[in-house]
Design brief:
Elements lengths: L6 H18 L21 H10 L1 H6 L12 H29 L8 H15 L14 H32 L1 H14 L10 H4 L4 H13 L8 E2 L4 E5 L2 E5 L4 E2 L3 H5 L2 H4 L12 E2 L7 E2 L20 H16 L2 E5 L7 H13 L1 E4 L1 E4 L7 E5 L1
Helix pairs in contact: 1-6, 2-4, 4-5, 6-9, 6-13
Length: 373
Amino acid sequence: MNGFTTTTDDTRTLALHVLAFVGFQKSYPFKSVSRADLTNPKSMTYRDSLAIILENALIVMVMPVASFAPSFLPLQWQQIGWAIKSFREYMSGQLEDERQLIRDGKPGTGTLVSNLVRASEEAANEKAVLNDGVPLKPLTEAEILGNIFVFNFAGHDTTAISTAYAMLLLVANPQVQDWVHEELQYHVKDTDLKSVSYSKLFPKLKRCLAVLLETLRLYNPLPGVPKYTARQTHLEVEGRTYVVPADTVVVPNLQALHTFPRHWGDDALTWRPQRWITGSSIESEDFFKPLKGSYFPWSEGIRNCPGKRFAQVEFVALMAALFQSHVAEPVPKGNESPEKARERVLAVVKDSNVELLLRMRDPGSVRVRWMAR
């Protein structure tokens, strides 16, 4: 087998398909969106429209919709306009379908759209109020659509990037693959994963989740998490007092926090998922708990990422599906030894830069081969 060079593309497709199904119960064949096939607005599926919007998210947020309409524009720009129109039509249809289910007294579909619509309707019917006595208004259609876009935008690229890093790090570290496989053999064996419930299996697969925790420690897609001070704050740091004025933007450096030797040891710069697991046997294993404030890839406090558990469950499910009965290895170049090939993969991972989010510069230079155990 020659292997695949499309790891990052595949993780983007996977993240997109998970969002499409969980959010809107739309299921598609596992293949990337081909923009060459989108020659008119009617050829665009929901998945196509969402993929194009997410791929051009910054442009969509800055440019008015009308700027994509003129027919003399390049096809790629027109496709953005078609995607926005198509996405809105899909969403409006979903909203109306959900409201009709509510009027008919039927249960919801359980999707993201369903939960937003039903929570909004309940707030309106119960005349809920905030702590200060202000009535809690139901979400408007525009607000619901805005929330859906934010969930998709925030949950797609971050998940896809983190998964791509984890996959190539696992390719470079076969001993971690074996460590994960040992856990899967203990808890899953050859059981069909579709027959196992989330509540029974997810809490047990700690090693699978540790791979994500360690990947985010070193390769978090977000270089920092912006915060604001509500009031003047005094910080005590090594015997000195620092005054931070009210309404000040504070951006903790996640990479520095997550690699500080005082909290993470002398091998703080080494990717080692085993650091997250304590216990003498698989049955008794538990998670290492970092010092508060030394690790927060999903932010922290009441405004932490609402998609944290969603991302964790998605990643653990992927790990179980891939490594239950398969291994991944790099395809050597020329006379390259397996060890040198793994070193090259690790060098590709480390050669990263920030383009809004952290990304590898040339992940396509790594060819990965998947083999049955």
